[in-house]
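Title: [Solved] PepSY-associated TM region 3D structure

Original question kept below for reference.
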Amino acid sequence: MTTSNAIRTSQLVRWHRRLLWLGGITLLLFALTGVTHPIMSWTGPQAVTMRPPMLSLSEAELNQAMQRLQQANLPAQSLVKLVPYQQQVLLQLTSDLQSPRHYLSLSDEASAISDQQMAIWLATHYSGLDETQVRRSRLQTEFDSAYPSVNRLLPVWQVDFDPGLSLYVHTETLSLAGITNSYKTNLQALFRQFHSWQWLDGVPLIKALLMTLLLGSALLLVLTGGWLLLRLPFQAKRRGLRRWHYLLSWGLWLPVTLYLLTGIYHFAYKYVQPDTLGLTASNAQPLPEHWQLPANVLPRGAVLNSASLVQGPASHWYWRLSLHNAGQQADRHSRFAGQASEHGALFIPLLPDAPVLDDASYAQLLAERFIGLTPEALSGQQLVQRFGPDYDFRNKRLPVWQLDYAKGRIFVDSASGQLVEQQSRSSRYERYSFSFVHKWGILQPWLGRDGRDAVVVAMMALVLLLAGMGFAMRLARR
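Solution (posted by the thread starter after getting help):
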């Protein structure tokens, strides 16, 4: 090594040591909080089933539902569905996305049950616990530490049981939006406050400056360490901690660098991402006054998830029947991987002169209503039946229709007539970076979710060991 190279290397060593305290502590912090996510998945409370309650429906009940709607003389509604409740079939009425839903029985003039009663019944279904064990239930209209914004669905009902278990139920989709206890809530809070730094969300400029300092110091620490790996002779004799630190650095340098770079990309993108639509309901519409349902339209013995009253082309109305997916699994793995709750849909027109409608065409109609996307502007359309980097577990709904166009894509839920999410083209690259690299999702097809999480925990443990060795060597020099 020449004298000038030796000087540059010694300067690099000094900078690496100077960066150790701030950059090393940052790396320790993000590694420690990063492992809380898989630990929550492994050790947190689990539902006894992820299957929603099933609906058995007859043609007589469809006609009863139309008669009941006419008798009730209701104002305009955003969504009308037939849903199961215990041994009954009820009409569920949604006026907007913020208010509790209302219910009508098919025979009585009074409201059948409250939204709270529906939520408690669903909570007992998913938890396997008895209604007598319910300690309290309340409508939650804002995200908090126990039910963070990553869950996306609001409002939900929080149902607390005596064993200390809390379930968050979304009554419109009859789905379990979240399940937690004090242990999981504390882990979630640790992750959000010291990995995502949400406690600084109210002061975005300070958060940006602080995160830039912390992540920048950690990245410079790793980059100077990588440069030293290339500059220092491989055959040099190293002993003790120095030897193990050097060998471990060769194995960890690339994954740690990518972990930091994708984390920085994810953080920075939030400040520049374009405005897009989130969960959006269809506009409230006056309900149909006339109907003439055809006979023998229901498949014999059909088992359904729900039946939705939807407005198709030229203001024609249809019952959209969500056919239950008999192959749906109830295990934890299927919950995270995602599985379609329905196996196709049937559209039953309320009037005989209505045009034939299928689910793909209805999804296109919704896209045009929400963002003015015409069929000619579509570059692609597909039914999404699994969660992935483009449409992930946070949305909770499957199946949905993905409709691509020049500037991005949207996802619509034809069962509820809602726009679930709009994505810009630029967000696609950030999603792939974060999902495949930062969260190690590239390993999931081969190792599964638990295998991937095990690799993440092992890597973060090695990062902690590497940083600990660095601190020990630095302290030994004093």
